[in-house]
Amino acid sequence: MNSAAPVMPLPPVAQLPEWLQAELRSNHAGELGAVFIYRGILTVSRDHQLRNFAAEHLHQEEEHMATFDAWLKPSQRSLLLPVWRIAGFMLGALPALIGPAAVFTTIDAVERFVILHYRSQISQLDASGQWGGVTALLRSFCSDEERHQADALRRYPMRRRTTIALIWSSAVSVSSRISVALARRF
Ligand SMILES: [Fe+2]
Ligand SMILES: [Fe+2]
Question: Taxonomically, which superkingdom (predicted)?
């Protein structure tokens, strides 16, 4: 969480409306997946700069995941957590086998998706005028994800992307969308 993160009490998940519980379930699953993406990179890569990049992001993703871990009871989490662990690990490890550009492309695509995901929840919460503590938390996490995405983009700018990178980026976005839809339900 960034240093400017507001500290406001979080309501019990069970007191929140169904739609928001489903969103939080998908957030927990997504943050778990993110932790495993960076663990996958660190398991495979020996590239010093790439490892520093992954270690720095991993630290924040672990904080995001820990917040949802502490907040959501096991019964309120996705049933598919083993799938999100494996999928996240592969999504980090496979590009890391190819090299830094493949990793930066993947992280840029994943974080770009996560930012839109969080922003959409923040808009819905703002419109509801309720659960200010939840909104503040998501805003704080979203700004961390914005930094992660900007970091990946800076290291592998759009103008240098190959066709394969652009195709891979679209595939990552589509699979992220499918994963979120599944995690909201299961
Ligand atoms: Fe995160
Ligand atoms: Fe992130």
Answer: Bacteria
Distance 134 CA to ligand 2 centre (A): 18
Q: pLDDT band for position 7 (50/70/90)?
A: low
CATH number belonging to domain 16-185? 1.20.1260
Token pair 């992307």: residue = 161
> 128: helix, coil or strand?
helix
Per-residue model confidence as pLDDT tens digits over 120-129: 999 999 999 9
Name every residue whose Cβ is closer than 8 Å to that of residue 43 and which is 6 or more positions away in sequence.
89, 92, 93, 96
Q: How far is the CA of 58 from the centre of ligand 2 (A)?
A: 8
The ligand with the least distance to the CA atom of 110 is 2
Q: Exposed, middle or buried, 78 (CB in 10 Å: 0-12/13-18/19+)?
A: buried
